[in-house]
Design a protein that fits this description.
The protein is of the alpha+beta class. It has four helices and ten strands, in the order ββαββαββαββββα. It has one domain: Oxidoreductase, molybdopterin-binding domain (Sulfite Oxidase, Chain A, domain 2, Alpha-Beta Complex). A hairpin with a 5-residue loop joins strand 5 and strand 6 (93-97).
Length: 163
């Protein structure tokens, strides 16, 4: 199906009744379930996925929704400057400037199939442009919009897992 390595899925990760919640410094906090996301404009793109661990998965085909489309529906307040993207494992989170996450995508499919849990399904954040593989948050279940920069622990956690 793909060239991504497979990792064990933490016990805390479950796809039962999954929804993506966007909250914090927004006018309309909201939860998006799979049907909500499927109803949004989506696109498909092919891209290689490089990791700091030294491997590359070539020519992956992702179907996704733009994070900007989600943010438009929750209406970040004028003070909003940052986003903290949380994984449902309860441990992993990655912070982004709001302007950067607006260009990111939330991947829902890989190679024409629902995104497998071992690769971050049901939804995986994929930042566009230059970035590091540890910014690609698996098992996304919430995004907190903030006015102040949140602590970013993702790099240390990610690098600790590959060393």
């Amino acid at each position: 199906m793909d060239g991504l390595p497979r990792y064990d899925v933490p016990d805390e990760v479950t796809t039962d009744d999954w929804a993506l919640t966007i909250r914090g410094s927004v006018r309309r906090p909201r939860a998006f379930d799979a049907a909500d996301l499927a109803a949004l404009p989506n696109e498909t793109f092919a891209e290689d996925f490089d990791c700091e661990a030294g491997w590359t998965a070539a020519g992956l085909s992702w179907r996704d929704v733009r994070v900007a489309d989600l943010l438009e529906r929750v209406e970040p307040t004028p003070e909003s400057q940052y986003a903290l993207v949380h994984a449902m494992d309860g441990e992993y989170a990655c912070a982004f400037p709001l302007e950067r996450i607006e260009s990111a995508v939330l991947a829902l499919e890989l190679d024409g199939e629902p995104l497998p849990t071992e690769h971050g399904g049901p939804a995986r954040l994929i930042p566009t442009g230059d970035g590091d593989c540890w910014e690609s948050v698996k098992w996304v279940d919430s995004i907190a919009i903030t006015a102040e920069p949140p602590a970013d622990t993702a790099r240390e956690i990610a690098l600790g897992r590959i060393e």
